[in-house]
Automatic annotation (TrEMBL):
Domain Activator of Hsp90 ATPase homologue 1/2-like C-terminal: 22-149
Protein name: SRPBCC family protein
Signal peptide: none
UniProt-listed Pfam families: AHSA1
Family: Belongs to the AHA1 family.
Length: 176
C-alpha cells in the first residue's frame, strides 16, 4: 500500500502520490470523463470556475467486485454534483463536493512535474466529522491506487476489497 493520507487541519485530509508523467497525461485522467471513469467516476466537468462538476460513481465497474450489503444502492451507483472553484490547467483543479453534514466540502488536486513523473497532492477540506474523514480518506486512497494501476497498465485492484481494508486502517489512524 502507498503512503496513507494525513490530517493537515481540522476536517481536512491530504494524500500525495507520484505518477508517471507527463503532467498533461495526469490532467487528462482528472478532467476527461472517459479517462476519469476508469479510476474515479464518469460525468461532465467544466473547465472554468463556477462551472458544474457531475461525478457518476459506479464502484463495482472499477474492478467488477460485488458491492457490500452495507452500502446498499448508494454503493452501486451515486452522483455528486458540485462546482469548479479553481482551474489552472494542468496544475490545479478544485471543486465542491457534497458533505454528509449538508454543507459542501472541497477537493483540490495540485499537480507538479517531478522529472518524468508528476506529484499529485489531493486535499479534501471541510469534511463534516471524523467518520466522514475516514470514509473520504479510504475512498480517495482506493481510487488513487486504481489510478496507479491504470497508469501502469495493470489490472486494477478490487475497489471494495481495497476500500474495506483501508477503512479499518484509517479508523485507527484518524481516531488517534
Amino acid at each position: 500500500m502507498r503512503e496513507f493520507g494525513v490530517v493537515t487541519a481540522p476536517n481536512t485530509v491530504r494524500l500525495e502520490r507520484v505518477f508517471p508523467g507527463p503532467i498533461e497525461r495526469i490532467w487528462a485522467y482528472l478532467t476527461e470523463p472517459e479517462k476519469r471513469r476508469v479510476w474515479l467516476a464518469a460525468g461532465p466537468m467544466a473547465d472554468h470556475v463556477g462551472g458544474v462538476v457531475e461525478l457518476r460513481f459506479r464502484h463495482s465497474e472499477l474492478s467488477h467486485e460485488t458491492t457490500p450489503e452495507r452500502f446498499g444502492e448508494n454503493g452501486r451507483e451515486f452522483r455528486n454534483v458540485g462546482n469548479v472553484t479553481a482551474c489552472d490547467p494542468p496544475h490545479l483543479l478544485s471543486f465542491t463536493w457534497p458533505s454528509s453534514g449538508g454543507d459542501m466540502s472541497e477537493v483540490t488536486f495540485e499537480l507538479s512535474p517531478q522529472g518524468n513523473d508528476v506529484l499529485m497532492i489531493l486535499t479534501h477540506r471541510r469534511l463534516a466529522d471524523r467518520p466522514e474523514m475516514t470514509s473520504v480518506a479510504s475512498g480517495w486512497h482506493t481510487h488513487l491506487s486504481i489510478l496507479e494501476d491504470q497508469l501502469a497498465g495493470r489490472k486494477p485492484r478490487g475497489f471494495w476489497s481495497t476500500y474495506m481494508e483501508l477503512e479499518k486502517e484509517y479508523e485507527k489512524r484518524l481516531s488517534s
